[in-house]
Every structure is written in C-alpha cells, then in structure tokens.
Amino acid sequence: VMAGGRGKAGLILPATDSTSAEKVARTIFGKVHAAEEVTRVLVEEQLQIKQEAYASVTMDFSVGKPVVMVSAHGGIDIETVAVTNPELLVKEYLEPWETVFSHKLREMWYQAGYKGQQIVSLEEILKKLVKVFYETDAITAEINPLVIMESGEVIAADAKLIIDEEAAFRHKGLVVVPREENNLFEKRAKEINVSYVALDPDGTVGIVAGGAGLSMATMDAVYSIGSKPVAFIDLGGGISRDRMKETLSLMAQTPGLKGVIINVFGGINNCLTMAQGLADFIDAEKPELKIVVKMRGHEQEEGWSILERYHIPTVKFGTTDIAIRELIKSLEEAGTECAS
C-alpha cells in the first residue's frame, strides 16, 4: 500500500521461520488501509536496530523552496514529534540554484545530536537523498526510519518517493503507479466519473462540491473554521441523478466521516437533479450522517423544495462559512466529536 502508517495498522509484522511467515502473511493479505487493499507482501531481513532517525527533503509550497528535515527521533511517531516537539526536527531550506554543501548537511545532524563518524555516514546518505530529490523532480523524498545498527552501520530501512506526476515523462525508468489503481475509493470514483481526494486521516468532515476550485476553497474554509476535512469529491459537470446518489454513497463509506457539506452551484450541474440524487441516497441508505447543503443556480427553488421535504439544512443565500458552521453545530449538538 502507498499510504503511510503501515506499522500502526498492523501491516508490518515479524516472523522467525517459514511457518510464522505464512501465518503473519495470511493476516496481512486482504487488509484495507487508507482505502488501499493489500495484494502483495514484501519480505525483508530483520535488523538489529540501535536507534531510528529521520531524513527527508520536501517542497514547502508556502515559500516555494525545498526544505531538508532531519531528526534523531524517527519511526512511526515522527508526525507526533513534529507537532509536540518541533525543536527535535532540524530544518534547512535549500536555494534551488545554489550548491548544497556537505558542511551544511553535517551541521544539521550535529544539531540533531549526533557526533563523530556517525555524522559522516548520516551526511553521506542525506547528500544522496537531496540528489535523488532533484534528479527525479520529486515533491517528497523521505527515509523513515533511517536506522543506526548495533554495529554502527547506517541503513535506509524504509523510504518514500513522491514525484511530480506532470514530470513523469522525464523519467522513463520510474514506474509511476496511478493512485486510483491502488485506492479503492479513487477507483470507484473514476468509475462513476467523479474525483475522490483523500485529505486528513483524522478528519471528520466530507466535502462534495461542484468543481475542483470550489472543492479546494471549501476545504480551506473547513480548516480555517477549526475542523478537519477527511476527503472531498469533485462532481465535475453534467452530474446525473444516479451519479449524485452513487457519489454520496461513496463518500458515506469514508472512514472517520461524521458529516458532509455539499457545496454546489447550479451552472454546470442542475440543482433539481442534485437534490433528487441526495433524496435517493437518503431513501436507500438512511444515513446517520449530518448533512448541510449550500446550493444555488439553475432550478434552485425546485431543488430547495426537495431538501426541505427531507429536512436537510440548506443555506440558500449565505456563504460557505455559514454552511460549514451549521454542519459543525449540528455535529456538536448530536454529541459527535468534530476533529479540530
């Protein structure tokens, strides 16, 4: 599976012989993690690990530069470290057109708490990681954990490489796997001609919107109000009644989902058609989800009439923020925890 958090999900297990290997493999095959089903397992040698470190190079789009990050606290809890103890994560921005000097990388490991020969080995791996980042047009190149063995040897025990898909044609030697081939949700979304995008795994709010721009704007609004979006679905144009129903059925299966904000404009889609699809979804599945709709545009009055009959809170002339706050309020009143 391409998603992180495999260790916490019970997808990395030890085995001591062929019998135990078969047993643990059977427990892993067929498991679904972050909507990705396990169809193959990788068998690796167990290492005698003394310490787990962390190293990555990733694009910081807020400043338009790559940032190198290292820490002496790698492994499955690196995300927690980044939030609760950010001082343990050493960062250094790279100037894209300047040489990356070894002494700068060595200094980062020194700040992380390493000394002597260890720094030399760690610096050499980090230099190669920076090289890989640039040569593959990567968005993220990460080694976690970067393990220090009892023998003192430094090994990249696990790694992640995310490249810019628009630059994939420049790298014929890389096998780029479209995520919808692995992700069951994205695969199903493609079948019904909509786009499913997983967001925050700790989120509780699902977004269904008409158009990628409106989807992302709604996502930003959910974050700004203090909640977390778990996924969004972009309806695109020409949505039918049946596809609207299937879209909502797909969103309802998202793990952790508590409520859905439907934010649509009846230009490329029809408000009446979308409301009919929502009504069909409710009739068929009788969901316990909280749903709030912000809908305007072609045949809006007819669409609103259906939503009123189904007692769906509808924001007719207000803003997206108002609709999101209405959803969060209904979740709180129902005693449903809303991630923040």
Q: Any low-confidence stretches, pLDDT <50, length ≥5? A: none
Total DSSP helices: 11
Beta content: 15-25%
Judged by helices, strands and strand pairing, the structural class is alpha/beta
User: What integer is the average pLDDT?
Assistant: 88
Order of helices and strands: HEEEEHEHHEEEHHEEHEHEHEHEH
In short:
The protein has 11 helices and 14 strands. The radius of gyration is 24 Å and the shape is elongated.
Written description of the protein model:
It contains 11 helices and 14 strands. The mean pLDDT is 88. The protein is elongated and about 75 Å long. It has 340 residues and is an alpha/beta fold. Strand 1 and strand 2 form a beta hairpin. The strands form 3 sheets. Strands 3, 4, 5, 6, 7 and 8 form a 6-stranded antiparallel beta sheet that branches. The protein has a 6-stranded mixed beta sheet with strand order 9-11-10-12-13-14, sandwiched between helices. A two-stranded antiparallel ribbon has the order 1-2. The protein starts with 17 loop residues before the first helix and ends in a 7-residue tail after the last helix.
